[in-house]
Design goal:
Shape: globular
Number of domains: 1
Number of helices: 4
CATH topology: Collagenase (Catalytic Domain)
Structural class: alpha/beta
Order of helices and strands: EEEEHEEEEHHH
CATH class: Alpha Beta
Strand content: 15-25%
Largest sheet: 6 strands, mixed
CATH superfamily: Collagenase (Catalytic Domain)
Helix content: 25-40%
Length: about 160
């Protein structure tokens, strides 16, 4: 399995919440209006758009494409590097997808990486196997109880 992402400048808090476990970063890219406005493009735009829908189906309208009247919070792009990293989310406001890895993935794996990286932008840290926020690439594309609990915990900070 390829390593899913490298989160720059992070630390996490793991908090057990009833049956779910939360894992959040000490940063997030959501603005004070509780929006994550993105711009840019990726070769994996279809999977990225699907990932946006996955998160927005849980909390409506948080992630949205940047418009002339909004301030950009995150820029998406691609890069190519011979490494095991599939995607990188930075606290500086970038999400980058490594074409070296991504081009070899199934559509579900690409969607997993896109959903996972957006999770970091929302302030989520790595969690357990079976979660979108698991540290390794998988075919998981729907949010688990841990993913939702982590998002709920992070959302309270915005």
């Amino acid at each position: 399995m390829a390593l899913l992402c490298l989160c720059l400048f992070f630390s996490i808090s793991v908090i057990p919440v009833s049956a779910a476990t939360t894992a959040i970063l000490n940063w997030y890219l959501v603005d004070s209006g509780k929006h994550l406005d993105w711009k840019g493009s990726t070769s994996y735009q279809t999977q990225f758009n699907s990932a946006v829908s996955t998160w927005n189906n849980y909390k409506s309208g948080v992630i949205r494409k940047d418009a002339w009247n909004t301030i950009n919070d995150v820029t998406i792009s691609d890069y190519n590097e011979v490494s095991s990293t599939a995607g990188v989310t930075s606290s500086a406001g970038t999400i980058k997808f490594n074409t070296y890895q991504m081009d070899n993935f199934t559509s579900a794996q690409k969607r997993n990486v896109c959903t996972h990286e957006l999770g970091h932008a929302l302030g989520l840290a790595h969690n357990a196997k079976g979660d979108v926020m698991y540290a390794y690439v998988s075919s998981v594309t729907s949010l688990s109880a841990n993913d939702k609990a982590s998002y709920d915990a992070s959302y309270k900070r915005y």
